[in-house]
């Protein structure tokens, strides 16, 4: 009843308006709408609520949760779709799960309001600096499953986005709130006019402070826009040392069969579809690399081992088709699969199910049809690929029980065959031939197509939402030619999630100064260059089969500031500002 009375009161109406202002303006700035003008006014809702409730800690916490729920409802509404489709929950369970996740995973809002209000009551000056410091702290030190930052929205501006080479999205968030609070000062033009005409001429000390504040504001603008422009010009002029022809196959593979479809028939159709899509694209024009997405062929592996056979995930026809594609076209093939093993300390005479570890894995097959290096996903998605507690697996039968990988190595790729298909005089193999031919038979059939194995480069492999964890990605070893992100966003339906996912991950291209190949199962596959620009702004359609092909530039290797030092500048900023605030408060207490 208290909540109902609050919502119909004047205070409640203003509060909900503020929540909505921040949520809607952020959403309009976010991909795929891309109207970055609105992002500068999105924090106004937070500023209004904090100013109206300064020092009222309990109220600020409740308002923080209000912002969290409205933000999820507007921007991350697809989580409800995931809860019903992936989790299989009815609406009366999905709604409280959605609200609970909105509150638990958006503590940044109440933390921001509390910290801002605390500093405002103690310092009582430098509010743009306080706003900047508070959002940086809140984004750094609050838990999130899908880490998103206001700085990712600012990065829709290509000039400002270049600053991510030094600060990632965090620095752009701090910049946004610093500038936005100055704009918040100007929300009442009549008061500004009165201040300039009547108050300041009589108070020289205050006039000096105002001038210093304005000067600092323009200095910050010059630093961020100037540095962004410099970096944009610098990297736009860099000449690539090579180009790789990359083909993305988007097969729109099924993920479950609760609607009564025949699984065997659907998988056969999928394999036929993949075979034909590759054949159509590469028959007359070979590529250096073909990329299939996460879950492009679900449920199976090409890794033939005692363990994978015991748990029945090895499928010889899957391996045969991958070998056919790579040998038929003389190309590298990168695809996603399941994988499994048993820890060395638990190896015994017989395989025990509880000892087996399952991985979300991606592997490259060379132009000779041989399975080579693989990468096991390290940063797993909670509630999607594992549950924090064993008893929680009973809540959702779709949740995987994956183990994290242990290596952060690049994936080498190989020189492709430059001569025509030498086996064409015999017969080109297709999916239908895998019913009667083993992987070894396929390789023997194409033995005339074999070439000398020669590594010509490597790429950085990322599976699904690993791409949005900047601190994680920089831990990879070596200098890649480009980044490959394979993902499966089909659980979220025809929503903005897939665009948002890419927006959150796009800054890795700027942090590394490398191109990114994003291969999805069901939509928004895209190529992004080292300046964070989506090539030709061309995305594949959602919930459909599609192909997309581009020339990927190999940018000369250089360890950027962010790769070397990570979030050092953000930590320094928080440390220095925190010390300045402490000294100022003690001096003026």
Automatic annotation (TrEMBL):
Pathway: Protein modification; lipoprotein biosynthesis (N-acyl transfer). Its EC number is 2.3.1.269. The chain crosses the membrane at residues 37-53, 60-79, 91-114, 126-146, 166-186, 210-232, 564-585. It is found in: Cell membrane. SUPFAM superfamilies: Carbon-nitrogen hydrolase. This is Apolipoprotein N-acyltransferase. Pfam families: CN_hydrolase, LNT_N. It comes from Leptospira bouyouniensis. Belongs to the CN hydrolase family. Apolipoprotein N-acyltransferase subfamily. Its main location: membrane. The gene is lnt. Keywords: Acyltransferase, Cell membrane, Membrane, Transferase, Transmembrane, Transmembrane helix. Catalyzes the phospholipid dependent N-acylation of the N-terminal cysteine of apolipoprotein, the last step in lipoprotein maturation. It is an enzyme of class 2 (transferase). Residues 244-561 form the CN hydrolase domain. It is a multi-pass membrane protein.
